[in-house]
């Protein structure tokens, strides 16, 4: 007697919950597996943008300037440096630590790179050497890694709380930045180095912006298809097809719409004449591309590498991570070293944008970096946080600051608003986790 083989139905049919959205809006959100906190941040960002558009126009939408292509282009450039550093702050906070020194470290690294370009390397290589900006940038990044690892070693091996170590770093590195140049402003920067900061020259133009946008759309489609294949391979529950189509369609529309809108910001006539005249779009700025690259790399590090899994394991339960054989001390040192590297990149962007290193560089930057990470969903109790969320948090913070400056709000009132938003974000996070654990 033989047993005839029985063909199992296709896994996709078994595990696909359906072909139509149906149900309520909440059901659709759950089906698409969208983080409700991320959705809330997007909603808050839209409210901020709409509010400042009306406010900047005296109550008139059409006369508002906040959502103009020029202001949003500037906003993207201003967000880049804080966003770059916020991605590193996520991992630091996830390990149940904090880094209060990032603003002062940015100052000392920026001053070091500026002095190398303006006063030290030209004596050996000449002012026109193409190596000046490369050596300066590499030196700043390496110096950032060393300073970050030094602070991490004190935290991991000496046992001094990160709050105290980095608070001391805040004072030490700020004083070191002042002493390096005796309070002078160091300028100008190497011409190629200046491209890192954006401006009229630091952009990729109309055509390359569309190429980047098309590649981003192709990446979105690839991630959705690959994610579905991986779920089938490992037997995980699939999202409905309509959910994948919706996520992909909305993401592609947002990317292409952003590229088209930013490309509508044109060079001033005087600068356009220097390039042959006509309407010449700015396109995406180099700092924005750097920030996007950092987000992609840091997301890969946090979600795909063993180091990232160790970081989240330490944040979830340090004792269990230690018992599981994770080298917690080495991981913490690497986390702070990575934070230092990202501060070095952020410092390069800031100095290049200003075309100078000033004594007040990076003041209160630590506030905005920490606030961006926390608003982006990173829990101060550790173990939870996402890289894209931190970038979105940076955009929210910078939108607040830029909008208030645009409508003429006093600096003191801006600080009050930022402080209130930070406390509110932590309070909402606390309430959310309390309900989730109930």
Overall description:
The structure is a single chain. The protein has 18 helices and no strands. It is an all-alpha fold and 438 residues long. It starts with 10 loop residues before the first helix and ends with a helix.
User: How much strand content do the residues show?
Assistant: under 5%
- Our count of helices gives 18
> How many β-strand runs?
0
* Largest sheet composition: none
Question: What structural category do the secondary elements indicate?
Answer: mainly alpha
Report the top-level CATH class of one domain.
Mainly Alpha
CATH architecture descriptor of one domain: Orthogonal Bundle
Radius of gyration: 24 Å
Helix fraction bin: over 70%
> Would you give the CATH topology of one domain?
ABC transporter involved in vitamin B12 uptake, BtuC
List the secondary-structure elements in sequence, H or E: HHHHHHHHHHHHHHHHHH
Low-confidence stretches at least 5 residues in length (pLDDT < 50)?
A: 4-19
Overall average pLDDT: 89
Distance between the termini: 57 Å
């Amino acid at each position: 007697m033989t047993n005839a083989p029985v063909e199992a139905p296709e896994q996709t049919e078994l595990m696909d919950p359906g072909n139509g959205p149906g149900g309520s809006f909440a059901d659709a959100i759950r089906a698409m597996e969208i983080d409700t906190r991320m959705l809330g941040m997007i909603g808050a960002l839209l409210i901020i943008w709409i509010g400042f558009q009306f406010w900047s126009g005296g109550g008139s939408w059409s006369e508002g300037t906040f959502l103009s292509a020029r202001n949003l282009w500037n906003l993207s450039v201003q967000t880049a440096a804080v966003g770059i550093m916020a991605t590193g702050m996520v991992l630091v906070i996830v390990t149940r630590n904090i880094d209060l020194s990032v603003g002062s470290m940015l100052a000392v690294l920026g001053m070091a790179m500026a002095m190398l370009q303006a006063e030290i390397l030209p004596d050996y290589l000449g002012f026109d050497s193409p190596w000046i900006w490369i050596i300066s940038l590499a030196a700043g990044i390496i110096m950032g890694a060393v300073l970050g690892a030094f602070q991490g070693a004190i935290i991991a091996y000496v046992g001094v709380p990160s709050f105290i170590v980095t608070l001391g770093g805040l004072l030490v590195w700020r004083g070191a930045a002042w002493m390096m140049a005796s309070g002078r402003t160091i300028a100008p920067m190497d011409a190629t180095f200046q491209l890192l900061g954006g401006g009229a020259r630091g952009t990729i133009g109309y055509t390359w912006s569309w190429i980047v946008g098309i590649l981003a759309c192709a990446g979105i489609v690839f991630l959705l298809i690959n994610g579905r294949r991986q779920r089938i391979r490992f037997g995980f529950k699939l999202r409905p097809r309509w959910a994948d189509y919706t996520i992909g369609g909305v993401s592609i529309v947002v990317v292409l719409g952003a590229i088209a809108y930013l490309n509508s910001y044109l060079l001033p006539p005087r600068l356009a004449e220097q390039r042959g005249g006509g309407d010449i779009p700015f396109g995406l700025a180099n700092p924005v591309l750097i920030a996007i690259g950092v987000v992609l790399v840091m997301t890969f590090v946090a979600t795909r590498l063993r180091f990232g899994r160790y970081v989240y394991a330490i944040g979830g339960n340090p004792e269990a991570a230690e018992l599981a054989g994770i080298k917690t001390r080495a991981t913490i040192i690497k986390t702070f070293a990575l934070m230092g590297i990202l501060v070095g990149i952020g410092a390069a962007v800031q100095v290049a944008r200003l075309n100078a290193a000033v004594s007040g560089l990076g003041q209160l930057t630590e506030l905005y970096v920490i606030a961006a990470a926390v608003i982006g969903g990173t829990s101060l109790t550790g173990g939870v946080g996402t890289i894209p969320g931190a970038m979105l948090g940076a955009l929210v913070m910078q939108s607040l600051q830029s909008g208030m400056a645009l409508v003429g709000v006093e600096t003191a009132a801006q600080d009050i608003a930022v402080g209130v938003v930070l406390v509110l974000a932590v309070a909402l996070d606390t309430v959310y986790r309390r309900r989730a654990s109930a």
